[in-house]
Amino acid sequence: MAQTQKKFMNSSADDLLRAFKIKVTGNIIWAGGITELILSVAQFLLGNTGQAVAILCAGVFFTGAAWFYQGRRVPILVRVMFIGLLTIISVISIYKNGTIGVYWTYPLLVACFFVFSGFLGIIAAALLTLIFGVTAIYAMPLDDGWRIATTLAIICALGSVFVVLLSELQKLLRKLVVTDTLTGLHNRHLVTGVLEDAIYRFRRYQRPATIMMADLDHFKQLNDTHGHLFGDQILKQVAERLQSVLRRNDQVFRVGGEEFLVVLPETGNAEAQVVAEKLRSLVSEHSFNGKDANVDVTLSLGVAQYAENQTWVEWLNAADSALMEAKRKGRNQVQVAEAPAERTAEPA
Predict the structure, then answer these.
(1) Is 347 within the bounds of a domain?
(2) Euclidean distance between CA atoms 252 and 75, whole angstroms
(3) Which domain of life is it from (predicted)?
(4) What are phi and psi of 263, to 5 degrees?
(5) Which residues contact 209 (CB under 8 A, 6 or more apart)?
(6) 274 belongs to a structural domain
(7) Is residue 345 part of a domain?
(8) How do residues 257-314 score in pLDDT, each as one tens digit?
(9) pLDDT, tens digit, for every residue of 38-82?
(10) Do 119 and 97 share a structural domain?
(11) 3-state secondary structure at position 179
(12) 67: domain range?
């Protein structure tokens, strides 16, 4: 079990990106809260008691929020309040201090792209650009006001372009991380999430799900005889054949050198066994055309339907054990895992 768990429990690209966004958002709120606390002291010293109290309250609230949500996703309402209160303080500062007050608008504008994700950040930044631009034109000499409004608009535009490009790069990175470059199938990085989703649907809606572990028989001998490039050609063709039989909502992963995992949602053992036999015959009963030779390859499969209270690791182990049984009994066959309740205890 430990080996199976280690094999599949790699942090996905989505998990890493989500953790990074949480950390960045938390750090920005920490920085904003601490900065407000420092500014409140400065305002007290300058005699601006009302403004100092408002900034102090905001600083205490956001510092507390940053501490409370440390390591967790900050709710959207708190983020909106964070940007909103800082915007109000910046507008007041522009009215009272003129050009000096404008300096705080630029980091706040940039912070929108980090505090909010994707197009929500662009919308927030555009709204702040409009508010600060109008405020600057109204509260300052026109020559200064329109220049400030223009620079804010330029920063907003550049930041928006950066967000769009970053979003596209993230999509490309995610595709590269979760895709097996040889076969075009998903790799093991998505397995955990897919299995946990199937388990959730079973527990919430009692919808069955079955998985199949499939392994090409004696594939090492094929590589030794014809070379690894020839073996790669065969793996590509096997992947194409597997996909040709499966439904649109079925998923197939390459999880090892010549090992594949198939996830069949809304499918019980009986239906899955029929699918497994189709896959086995499609691979085993039709020759593969390599660059230098035609070869016959057989496929062994282990089938396991999800059973109540299983973890995803236990579910995978059940399919893996059925695959090992198919190998032990002569290969080129399908074996179905026993339900956990049907398993007998091993003698002491």
Answers:
(1) no
(2) 35
(3) Bacteria
(4) -110, 125
(5) 198, 199, 201, 202, 263, 264, 265, 266, 267, 305, 306
(6) yes
(7) no
(8) 899 999 999 999 999 999 999 999 999 999 998 877 889 999 999 999 999 889 999 9
(9) 888 887 887 878 778 878 888 888 888 889 888 888 888 988 988
(10) yes
(11) strand
(12) 9-178
